[in-house]
Amino acid sequence: MSRPHSVHPSTPTRRRCVAQVGLASAWLALCAACSAPPTHLTVDLEAYAARRAARVPAFDDAASGALGLAALRAAATTQHPALALARRRALAPLAAAEFAGLWPDPTLALDLERIVSGAANPLEWAALIGVEVSLSGQRGARERELRAEAQAAFADAAAATETHLAALDEAWVDWLAAKLEARALEAHAAALAPLAQRAALAEAAGALEHSEADLLRLALATANAAAAAATHLCDAHAGSVRRLVGSRSDAPLALAWPADVEAPEAPEAPEAPEAPEAPEAPEASEVSRGRAEGPEATNGRATPPTSSDPPAAASLARSPRVVAALAHLAASEARLEREWRARFGDVGFGLGPGRKDGEQNALLGVTLPLPLWNQNRAAIARAEAERALAHDALALAVEETLDARERAASALALARGERARWEADVLPLTSTQLSRLETLAELGELRLFVLLEAERGLRDAELHRAALIAREWRATLALAREHSPSATDLPAPDSPCE
């Protein structure tokens, strides 16, 4: 009986298999090498400087010639370069999240062995194409983590936007206060001009000494210089407002005077930055000397809630501090989930041909991690600690929001009360005293020093009233920001191409 023997593939067949595997590997490597690399970005400092010089934000109500605070806030939200850059920081994790769920690239493993002596078939080889399979769901967890990080980055951008808008409000109130001060000083100088003319006539007639006339002329010159300095300060504050909007300080952007400067009212927040709705330009109104009106807001808008109102969860969820803290807590939860799933590594499978002992074989390889000792415990412990820290930060953000609302409501009530007392008690007395002295002067009894002192008293009272109006504006805007922040209306980008 003849001896059975194995039937082996011929040498050309084996060589053909090896050549096919090699050609496939070379083709894959060539495709990867021929893909176009990312191009380098062009850096042109002169172009950047020219872009800044030409930057003038676009406004929907530019034809009106003057821009109110609501339009300025809407333009700063959408067009200020620093705020746009803060929002684009969220696109980096968002771009990575779009590809986080892809399978890893396969691997090619080649094993060649040549037996030096004592074998009929000295060359042995094996080729395996391996693929890693995630059975623990790490890729999906990684995608969710990156998207949560993007939401946290965008929430940070919204908080930075609200901080920037607060600085814009402060600069706008500074401009308003400087404008009120300039108008009060101009009114004081205008009131001194007739007195100076009357004193000059009395000096020429010999009824007034030269020293007394010089004193009145000095007071008029000082008043004119103070009014000019206040006007320059007003222009400087207007430049600060333009810079915070995203333009140059000398850009041709006129700031609109509030429709009722003595009734502070917070502007409406823009609904969306892509198409900000700018209100109509308010008409200018002069501040009359000695006018005493209440600070109540008009135009039918509801009064912002005070600290006595119960804090609602929906109201707290609109606070930029709370929104950012919630986003960071969600990101820490997603990070902990990914680290927990990383306890079990990916399973690797490999399949390919091989040759051993002169026989052609089909090979199957499996790589199975065994989570016995490590189990990713260090990363899990760190993620748990970060999650606890994010939870504490959320609790602190809620407390800080409620505290800021209470302080803003208290500041507004205090500013309104102090202004009401000043307008009810001080301004009428100064106006009455000056009116009586002016009447006596018209009748020929010129009490120069008393009249000059009364003019200065009315000037100081008007300047203090202007400061109280600015203080009430600050408190009103601060309370409106706490209860109706506009930065939380910004839509989060869902694509890195936006």
C-alpha Rg, in Å?
38 Å
Question: Reading side by side through the largest sheet, how are the strands ordered?
Answer: 1-2-3-4
Distance between the termini: 80 Å
* Class by SSE composition: alpha+beta
What does this entry look like structurally?
- The chain has helices at 11-34, 45-53, 69-79, 81-88, 91-97, 138-204, 210-245, 313-316, 320-341, 377-442, 448-483, and strands at 107-114, 123-133, 347-356, 359-367.
- The protein is built from eleven helices and four strands.
- A hairpin with an 8-residue loop joins strand 1 (107-114) and strand 2.
- Strands 1-2-3-4 form a four-stranded antiparallel beta sheet, covered by helices on one side.
- The longest helix is centred in the middle third of the chain and has 67 residues, at 138-204.
- 58% of the residues lie in helices and 8% in strands.
Q: Strands, helices and their partners?
A:
Layout: H1 11-34, H2 45-53, H3 69-79, H4 81-88, H5 91-97, E1 107-114, E2 123-133, H6 138-204, H7 210-245, H8 313-316, H9 320-341, E3 347-356, E4 359-367, H10 377-442, H11 448-483
What's the short story on this structure?
With 498 residues, the protein is an alpha+beta fold. Helices cover 58% and strands 8% of the residues. The chain is elongated and about 140 Å long.
